[in-house]
Amino acid sequence: MAKLRLGINIDHVATLRNARNATASALPDLLRAAEESLKAGGDSITIHLREDRRHILDADLARLKKHLKKPINLEMAATPAMEIIALRTKPHAVCLVPEKRNEITTEGGLDVVKGGAKLAGTVNKLAAAGIRVSLFINPDAAQILAAWTSGAQAVEFHTGTYANATGAAQKRELKRLQWAAKQAHKLGLEVHAGHGLTYENTPAIAAIPEIVELNIGHFLIGEALFVGLKASIGRMRALMLKARK
Ligand code: PXP
User: Fold this and answer.
1) Which residue's alpha carbon is at the smallest distance from atom 7 of ligand 1?
2) Ligand 1, closest atom to CA 195?
3) Which CATH superfamily is 5-244 part of?
4) Which of 76, 209, 217, 231 has its CA 20 to 30 A from that of 57?
């Protein structure tokens, strides 16, 4: 089975910092959180530069890019303004996500079927600059096909519905994700997953052999309040390894 990477989403360290002072030099220090996350077993750092800058700031992105030795995965909306920032910063990877101003978090996957040509334009520009592009989509046949047509290298499946479900409904969602991962992999897309993942619901996702990257944030940062980043990330890593065997 391919190695399963873990990307740590540190958006909510910035949420906490911004509650007091929304500047890149304020505390808690985002760069320190990123470095500790990588030391604890993260393979990459994921950050979402939202249009309203509610957590990550432009200055955070520049600072992380300057100092981090491991890859940055930048989540962003496919807008002209964000394209310029990505092309100027050149993170290792970009994950294109849908963005609604009033949502609490990224509530669903991108509609790649509807966004087709426009999204493909963004994918092409970023890919031409050497950036690995993934599309954040629901585990849906039409979306997978549209993602492949767009020229994206990877898809990240939105695991939010799975994470919020229980019992039989959660089993159904898991089956959908297992099926979708197979389809995407068959098309040659790299398969990632994320959203709402916890110690409890991650093992079943980590066991899907086609998935090679998980991006996890809110739960790990919350858990770190009690046990520290080293322990929260270390335990997630151990669970992922066990599920992969
Ligand atoms: N992947 C994507 C594309 C996301 O938008 C998010 C949330 O920002 C995550 C993963 C991480 O989700 P969570 O914070 O619920 O672990």
Assistant:
1) 195
2) 12
3) Aldolase class I (3.20.20.70)
4) 231
Residue 76 scores a pLDDT above 80 = yes
pLDDT in tens, 151-191: 999 999 999 999 999 999 999 999 999 999 999 999 999 99
Give the tokens for residue 186: 């068959």
User: What pLDDT sits at residue 116?
Assistant: 83
pTM: 0.97
Check pocket membership of 75 for ligand 1, CB cut-off 6 A: yes
Q: What's the confidence (pLDDT) of residue 1? A: 81
Residues serving a catalytic function are 48, 75, 195
> Is there a contact between 53 and 23 (Cβ–Cβ < 8 Å)?
no
Q: Give the residue whose CA is nearest to atom 9 of ligand 1.
A: 195
Q: Which residue has the tokens 């220090």?
A: 29
